Amino acid sequence: MKLPKELYNGIIIFIGIGLYFLLMEVLNLSNLFYLRLLNIVFVYYGANKTLKSNFLEGKNLFSHNAISAFLTSIIGIFLSIAGLLAYIYAKGGDSYIQNLSETFLFVGTPTAVTYTITLLIEGIVSALIVAFSLMLYWKEKYPAD
């Protein structure tokens, strides 16, 4: 059974983000917040790969491609957040969150669930931004109205 390209590329996003953050953890760079922003590169890569595949298949409908790019991004983000939650609980749960939340702006002491929900909301917004910016990039590929 062949996986849909949105799911396949979402898994690629998840693997890329997971390996990137594990590498940052091993190199003791996880406290540098600006390096965390580079995870958007993996989201762009996966969504762009989906759009490229759609165009090669002849799918030029703007709305279909926008939904496909957003779905790819959101799958990768949901998988990444689920992986992060599992990783947090494997490292000690709420006590491990205190190490992670030092570089984020949290009031009080966030729990693992609060932390991941906040990142999920951020991820959904970034998925929208990625989908819309890629659709602007690919706009010239669509037939003229």
TrEMBL record:
Q: Which UniProt keywords apply?
A: Membrane, Transmembrane, Transmembrane helix
Organism classification:
Bacteria, Pseudomonadati, Bacteroidota, Flavobacteriia, Flavobacteriales
The protein in question is named MotA/TolQ/ExbB proton channel family protein
List membrane-spanning regions: 7-23, 29-47, 67-90, 112-138
